Amino acid sequence: MTLKGERIEILKELEDKINYKFNNFELLNLAFVHTSYANEHSSLKGKHNERLEFLGDAVLEMVFSEILFKNFKPKQEGYLTKLRSNLVCEASFSELSDEINLSKYLLLGKGEEKTGGRHKDSIKADLFEAFNGALYLDAGYEVVYNFIYGLIKDKIFDENIVVENVNDYKSMLQEHLHKYKNINLKYELVKEEGPSHDKTFYIEAYLDSKFIGAGKGRNKKFAEQNAAKNALKKLHVI
């Protein structure tokens, strides 16, 4: 894929944002080629970002593991595993992608664009993985580590966020309700506020049609956890 001036300029804007200049500019661009775009452009010959996504997924798990290992030394394996599972996931990666607005640089097919693909959590999370896969190939592990640490350091050292990450209130609520038969627990997104990089989601929890709790959070996963927590309080479980 031959990069034109406008595309080069927009990718240079991203380089300035992350304070790193890619040695392989084609690799950087490939990280943003979605399969839907590749399928609509025969000149790409099927080249898209899924292989980089595969690599980035593995690199990010290692990076997050090392960050948690180094910064939560008194904590044991179970605690670290729970915390990592809440950081290495679709909701977290989508949020981190929004922080540097990676979707702005994404190349999507026309159909995917029309259906709102640029704003889907799954696509934004996959994009975050692909970008970090490209960064790893171009710069190495240390650069990826420093990049991720810079993005998350304020969050992982916020005690309130850490506690909420580790406590799985949704599982606690599900376990409490397990003794009741034929009850349908569901979570509904009521609204979302704020710009794409700093959204707040509002979720309500229902048993069948009965409201039992509400919560908000910086992504849907955390909002659901807070709704479950408030439901547990209302049911006098915690």
UniProtKB/TrEMBL annotation:
Enzyme class label: hydrolase
List of residues binding Mg(2+): 53, 126, 129
Record has Metal-binding as a keyword: yes
Annotated TM spans: none
Catalysed reaction, written as an equation: Endonucleolytic cleavage to 5'-phosphomonoester
Pfam families linked: dsrm, Ribonucleas_3_3
InterPro entries noted in UniProt: dsRBD_dom, RNase_III, RNase_III_dom, RNase_III_sf
Annotated active site: 57, 129
Recorded GO MF terms: double-stranded RNA binding; identical protein binding; metal ion binding; ribonuclease III activity; rRNA binding
Positions of the DRBM domain: 168-237
PANTHER family found in the cross-reference section: RIBONUCLEASE 3, RIBONUCLEASE III
Stated role: Digests double-stranded RNA. Involved in the processing of primary rRNA transcript to yield the immediate precursors to the large and small rRNAs (23S and 16S). Processes some mRNAs, and tRNAs when they are encoded in the rRNA operon. Processes pre-crRNA and tracrRNA of type II CRISPR loci if present in the organism.
Family named by the database record: Belongs to the ribonuclease III family.
Protein name: Ribonuclease 3
Gene source species: Helcococcus kunzii ATCC 51366
Gene, per the UniProt record: rnc
